[in-house]
Amino acid sequence: MVALFGGLMAPGELALAQFSEDPPIEEDVIEGMDTAEAPNAGDAVEDEAVPSLTELASVNSAFQAPSGSSEFNEAKDSTHSPIWLNHYSILYGPSVRNPKSFQPSPKGGPDRERPVLVRNHLTLGYDFSETLLIAGTLPFTWIPVQGHRLEVMDPYVRVGLDHILQNDYLNYYVDLRVHFPVTRESRDQDMLAAFQMFQILTLVPGSNSSLSLDLFGSARTNFFGKQGSGADLELYLAPQLNYQMTSTVALTVLYEMGASHWFGEKPFVFHSDGTDLEPGLSWDVTPKFNLHPYLNIFPSGKVSWDSTSVGLMMNWKML
Predict the structure, then answer these.
(1) Pseudo-torsion of CA 257, 172, 37, 28, nearest 10°?
(2) For the whole model, what pTM was predicted?
(3) C-alpha distance from residue 74 to each of 53, 69, 151 (Å)
């Protein structure tokens, strides 16, 4: 992850940054920072302007779920044909104890600004080789409550490089993404363009080990016009510990964190996008279909069943 941030800040600059104490954002960087959806963790975010922690991995929707791992598998597992089609989605569900139409806030009550939703990423890609791919993604969100809305998000294309560093103990993947601000929300923000770098470093203790560690990182820069509003720099970092129980089932624990700089503010003033902890279980139902239920916990808020939400990631390799 050092390489991720090294291109954005000179040595010593990070120490000068000031962080606000904003409340944690919802999850969704790795299909997405696919956003600071905000992002996303996970999600987030995935979206597209500011990822949630899980969304971050996906879009601000880049923090909610380990969105990055499924995205990584798109690149690694599409070996039968150079052309592949993938559908990746994240359910941002309600509170465990008191399920309603809204996601819970870190304090435990329903967050009226965050309804239960499903964030989707439909990706068409082409593998030039085992190490080089190009793909285009259309993100869209389905809100099954309060009227059943379907919202299309900003599309993006990416060029990915896998196996940049590879041996029996590690693998390094990186991709560069260009987001196209064509939706009404992005136009209202006067967004002109957005560029993102996403990275995954996978570490395995040994060839026979059931444990592995993934480090997801993302940096997204948004460019605005004179009337711009929103985050112009979104940063995301998330380690994930995996334990392979069987050939098809793995236990996972993801910890997401993010920070963003807002357009028009002083250079080194950053706002915390929050943190979240996501224990989950990944199940390869078939070689092409994976389900990944998880819990989303806000460690910096009121840790309780009221503030803990349920989530579900789904990855379907259609081609």
Answers:
(1) -80
(2) 0.78
(3) 20, 9, 24
